[in-house]
Design brief:
This protein has 14 helices and 21 strands. The protein has a six-stranded antiparallel β-sheet, covered by helices on one side. It has a four-stranded antiparallel β-sheet with strand order 14-15-16-17, with no helix packed on it. Strands 18-19-20-21 form a four-stranded antiparallel β-sheet, with no helix packed on it. Strand 7 (106-112) and strand 8 (115-121) form a beta hairpin. The radius of gyration is 35 Å and the shape is globular. Helix 3 runs antiparallel to helix 4 (226-241) and helix 4 (226-241) packs across helix 6. With 590 residues, it is α+β, with helices and mostly antiparallel strands.
């Protein structure tokens, strides 16, 4: 299945050395980039260490051992494979434009062997997950430093309307400078200016780190940083306690243990930030990564010299501006105005709030006085024209020693014209009261109608869930899933999500059984099974999911020193090892 050591891509530009990771959608290799470093005295050939990620949809494809081309088993598999390959290429091209000191850089995206490859910067170091396994728990200053760096990286990609959607210790590398670097944007999503999704990748859920909205395909249709904020908070929880928090979808029945009960050294301020970041309800979390970082007491640490200026009032060495205006987006007005200030003069968030209060308080007082005068004027009615000057002067003099405000309109003795105006005013008030009563009546009718509609929706939801459960009992999982999907359109609950996922599992189990039924199974071969395909009577090998890993094109199978010998049509033998990799081809004997 994997490419052999020393295999070269792009006409020798990249050469692979070993496999460093495999997953459901790809294989990651270490390798070298053969290039030249040019100087005044000439060019020197050099090999730069890199990583190469190969798109390999494990459940639907296999590798042709003769050509190393990636092939697909069926037409359905071909459509899925092509669909996700294009999305992978699209996402990688987006990320090749994203350069940040705390994100591993994508160097190039290209297609070869009927699949896609991503060439990435290789980091000398280890993953945060590996570090955590050795340490058990990290100290709070150490964990907060890494969270701050990853938080800055997330601020940067969120400004471009990109969500990472897979933040966890395994996707954070610690480099030789003890800085955190974010990797693996394989399931990221990008949104346009109207917050509508423009790219959709395969749904991947890291248990304990995924927000509840990631369990619902409709939960990420609009851009919001809150799923990444949940994952960042869950990562901090994991670093400080050594425990992965329970899955968000299970939190109703499996409450979260407070971090301080697992690690008494966690400060109340940090615990508060963690608990707010990993609220199950998205609306209860922080609205932005910056808001979360400001709530944490981040210890001082040496900044990377190539760190771009973030929109936080902090100043660091600025990198040159580029044509794609990535850095321009981070240079906000606050940073521009404070760049010439000394550190002591830098307006901290607290100073900014105090400055704003100094300006707002006088404005609010003045505004309150103005509103009070206007209200009193309107309540007292419009100022009528005095019937004669002496009467008006007398009334003004009589008010001089009273408690009346100088802003109150003077009281004028009613005249016949004033009586008529008062009667007219009372008539208008009666009309207004009548309209108000009518509106209240209409509102009551609307509320009754809404209540009836809500009851109808709840009844339909209950009926759909009950119908789906009955179909599951009969084994009609596809039909049951459609009922649960309809119920989810009415309201999303833990119950309906659990049932939908259970249907997916049962459907996949049925598919595996159906695929395996196409073969006569023989002896185990590593993680595979030697089989004879019923359709053509030829031999090969399948994996636990019933997917052909060694194509069923061979006449017979025999034991070999290096694995198994498969007899070809020309009666020569191809030798495969237990990993399903061809190690020799076209031998006369074995």
């Amino acid at each position: 299945m994997i490419l052999p050591k020393g295999y070269c891509l792009q006409n020798g530009k990249y050469c692979l050395t070993e496999v460093i990771g495999q997953g459901g959608f790809g294989i990651t290799y270490s390798g070298v980039w053969n290039t030249e470093v040019k100087g005044e005295l000439g060019a020197v050939k050099t090999a730069v260490p890199i990583c190469i990620k190969e798109y390999f949809f494990k459940d639907y494809c296999f590798r042709d051992p003769a050509t190393m081309q990636v092939r697909v088993h069926s037409e359905t598999g071909r459509r899925l494979f092509d669909k996700f390959r294009e999305r992978q290429i699209q996402e990688a091209r987006i990320l090749s434009e994203v350069h940040h000191p705390y994100i591993v850089n994508v160097l190039e995206v290209f297609e070869e062997n009927n699949t896609a490859y991503i060439a990435m910067e290789r980091i000398t170091g280890r993953s945060l997950k590996s570090l955590l396994e050795d340490e058990g728990q990290l100290t709070e200053p150490c964990a907060l430093k890494y969270i701050d760096q990853i938080g800055r990286a997330l601020e940067f990609v969120h400004a471009k309307n990109i969500l990472h959607l897979d933040i966890k210790p395994g996707n954070i590398l610690i480099d030789e400078h003890d800085d955190a670097r974010l990797i693996d944007f394989g399931v990221s999503k990008r949104y346009d200016i109207d917050n509508q999704e423009t790219s959709t990748t395969t749904l991947t859920l890291s248990k304990g780190f995924a927000a509840i909205e990631q369990y619902d395909s409709d939960g990420l249709t609009g851009f919001s940083p809150r799923p990444d904020i949940y994952s960042l908070g869950a990562t901090l929880y994991n670093l400080l306690t050594g425990c992965v928090p329970p899955e968000s979808i299970l939190r109703v029945t499996k409450p979260l243990t407070e971090p301080s009960r697992l690690n008494a050294n966690i400060t109340p301020r940090t615990e508060h930030a963690i608990l707010r970041a990993i609220q199950v309800n998205p609306a209860d979390r922080y609205a932005s990564v910056r808001e979360m970082l400001d709530d944490l007491d981040i210890p001082p640490y040496p900044e990377r010299k190539d760190q771009p200026v973030a929109a936080t009032g902090q100043t660091t060495q600025r990198a040159p501006l580029t044509n794609d205006d990535e850095r321009t987006q981070l240079l906000t007005a606050d940073v521009e105005e404070t760049a010439l200030l000394t550190p002591a003069e830098q307006p901290t968030p607290a100073r900014r709030r105090k400055g704003k209060r100094r300006v707002l308080i006088p404005l609010l007082i003045g505004l309150s006085v103005l509103i009070g005068w206007a209200a009193s004027y309107l309540i007292g009615g419009s100022k009528p024209a005095p019937t004669n000057e002496p009467t008006a002067n007398l009334l003004l003099q009589s008010d001089a020693g009273s408690d009346r405000s100088p802003f109150d309109p003077p009281t004028v003795a009613p005249s016949s014209a004033a009586d008529k105006q008062a009667e007219k005013h009372q008539s208008e008030e009666k009309k207004t009261d009548k309209k108000t009563e009518e509106k209240k009546s209409d509102k009551a009718e609307t509320t009754t109608h809404d209540d009836a509609s809500s009851e109808t929706s709840n009844a339909r939801y209950v009926a759909l869930v009950a119908s789906g459960k009955m179909k599951m009992e009969r084994g009609a999982y596809a039909d049951a899933k459609r009922d649960f999907a309809s119920a989810k359109e009415i309201k999303v609950t833990e119950e309906v999500i659990r049932l939908s996922l259970a249907c997916d599992d049962r459907i996949e189990e049925d598919n595996v059984r159906a695929r395996k039924a196409l073969y006569e199974q023989g002896m185990p071969f590593g993680s595979y099974t030697i089989v004879r395909k019923k359709q053509n009577g030829r031999y090969g090998a399948i994996d636990a999911q019933g997917i052909e890993r060694i194509r069923c094109i061979y006449l017979s199978v025999g034991r070999s020193e290096n694995g198994r010998a498969f007899e070809r049509e020309d009666h020569l033998y191809d030798i495969y090892n237990a990993n399903g990799t061809m190690v020799a081809r076209g031998l006369t004997t074995y």
